[in-house]
Amino acid sequence: MATIYEVAKLAGVSPATVSRVFNGMGVSEQKTLAVREAARELRFTPNRTARSLRRQASEVIAMMIPDIENPFFTAMTRAVEDLARADGYSVMLCNTDEDPEREQEYLRAAVSDPVAGIIMVPSSKTARLDLPLERRVPVVCVHRRAPNGAVDSVVADNRAGSAAATRLLFEAGYSRIGCISGPELVETADERAAGWATAVRAATGADPAPELSVRTTYTVSGGEQATRALLALPEPPDAIFAANNKLASGAIRVLAGAGMMPPRIGIVSFGGLPLVLLVPAGIHVTHLPSRELGLRAATMLLERIQGLDVPAREEVLPVVISDEDSGLSQLDGHFGVLDA
Amino acid sequence: MATIYEVAKLAGVSPATVSRVFNGMGVSEQKTLAVREAARELRFTPNRTARSLRRQASEVIAMMIPDIENPFFTAMTRAVEDLARADGYSVMLCNTDEDPEREQEYLRAAVSDPVAGIIMVPSSKTARLDLPLERRVPVVCVHRRAPNGAVDSVVADNRAGSAAATRLLFEAGYSRIGCISGPELVETADERAAGWATAVRAATGADPAPELSVRTTYTVSGGEQATRALLALPEPPDAIFAANNKLASGAIRVLAGAGMMPPRIGIVSFGGLPLVLLVPAGIHVTHLPSRELGLRAATMLLERIQGLDVPAREEVLPVVISDEDSGLSQLDGHFGVLDA
DNA sequence: CTGTTAGCGCGTTCAA
DNA sequence: TTGAACGCGCTAACAG
Fold this sequence. Notes:
Two copies of one chain form a homodimer.
Chain A: H1 4-11, H2 15-21, H3 29-42, H4 48-55, E1 60-65, H5 71-86, E2 90-95, H6 100-112, E3 117-120, H7 130-135, E4 139-142, E5 152-156, H8 158-171, E6 177-181, H9 187-204, E7 213-215, H10 220-231, E8 239-242, H11 245-257, E9 266-270, E10 278-280, E11 283-286, H12 290-305, E12 314-317, E13 335-337
Parallel strand pairs in A: 1-2, 1-3, 3-4, 4-5, 5-12, 6-7, 6-8, 8-9, 9-11
Antiparallel strand pairs in A: 10-13
Helix pairs in contact in A: 1-2, 1-3, 5-12, 8-9, 10-11
Chain B binds a DNA duplex through α2 and α4.
């Protein structure tokens, strides 16, 4: 692996000149050409590690998400990568599995790498950001707020969105609506359950029955178990608000297995059901601004990396509720089609 | 950010001793304790950049995939990450978008970082691996073979799997089966189209009609257009073999829009349709060993990183074809359910 | 515009 | 077992 010294020797210049050529400083055309020629001959590529060490700055952004297999997070990641690349940064993927220990481990690694910045979906309200804060590594929290509002955050309006999604079911004529949401202390899960409760209160004038709200893990099997629990109630719900796509998948799966489909039971999925596009008619699907969340987070982080020094900011992106089944119900009597 | 020098001073030892403590060399218990205490006090973390530069070795694996939003690739990536983490490596995600130029750019970056190794899904048979080969950075190709067999590869048996999947349609009574596959020169696309042709030949005793095979991009809209083209044929097919999940999604979308569903038309998707789990009955879905591909690739790469020096290896993983619609058709008369 | 030199933080000789 | 000194490859500061 060639170094600037070898290039310099071959080009008949000093190492510093080689460095300057590769960093766009003022070098005479003649020497520039000579350096480029020598570099090509030696297949020279600047060593990024050495550069980082010397500059005390890296070109890597750490992206910490709970689950790389959830299309919601990959869409976010994709957006981040697009923007980061445009600014010359690479994206390092860190899968936390909602595990605070893994998260902490990744934070430690990111800080000792050290990365240019961190975009993270905090696994819980207890996430500790001391390490990056202390080392002055910029952090932006996305999708869930930063603990203590310590750093920039950009989130979707989960509460209002969930309330609107639940309202859809009331408007469709359902009256006893169950809620399946994620773990306690996970912000999105709390917010979405709260939105559901708000809508129930607005529609019925009373607090929702406690047994109608089930909290579980954000997984397909969590959705399955919760749905079974709701169906087993003495007075089961006639509709279900599922707080994310995996929960909705589990719910749909169990309901389909029990032969219960709309309009016999109402279902709304808060968050897109990806790729497959086919859901039975009558299932409402709301769109979460995953890409927009990623774009905003990346923008805010890049600003911080470039030195922006203002107090922690917080942005809330609206959740647009379509009132059509699955977004495109006109296609077919039996299926709605969800945008890819 | 504390350095070993500050830790050394505080602990009353030399920097070398601090280094030794953090690398598991022989240091007296007393000094070890002193160093650890000082390190904790200073919140010291070894700087990975400096370590990489000095050791000429990094702890990052570059994972280059065509599309982070395709669950097939994220499942692979997830498997890679699991294994890599266990060995102390982080995974850097590189999204190539099937674009050879971006791929090349990423290879250049990976080589100049420099990473410990590269796992890649080559975007085409023309991918150039000279850079990593020259710099002796280990590469493993996954899902698609390495160009020229230059490095280790692990792939699924796309040809046999596709033939078996196509046979499923013949066995279900369909006789004129169309094929929608990916771009020319993309190995999986070629192999799957070839598998389809083999099955057609075996079933009909003749070569398939050329107009029954459509090649397009591996996208939902590609699948849509191809399906429309097939339906517009003077003699349209009575069944469709879709060579990947995105193509199948597009096909299903168009067919559903035209009111054509099984059994009126046969459909098989080569590759899982993720998360949503609901596809109309009669749609066959085969399972690709995405996780296994990732695991094998990671294993092979880690071996190479550890210095294994044998000629390039090639592994072919079997594709298991389930003969049930969507894997779980027993659930419901109208829907099949696909495993998450 | 160009060359010389120092040092980013660490791991690893070599001597003691 | 320990410490002093060197250098990984590069860029920034200073001279010229």
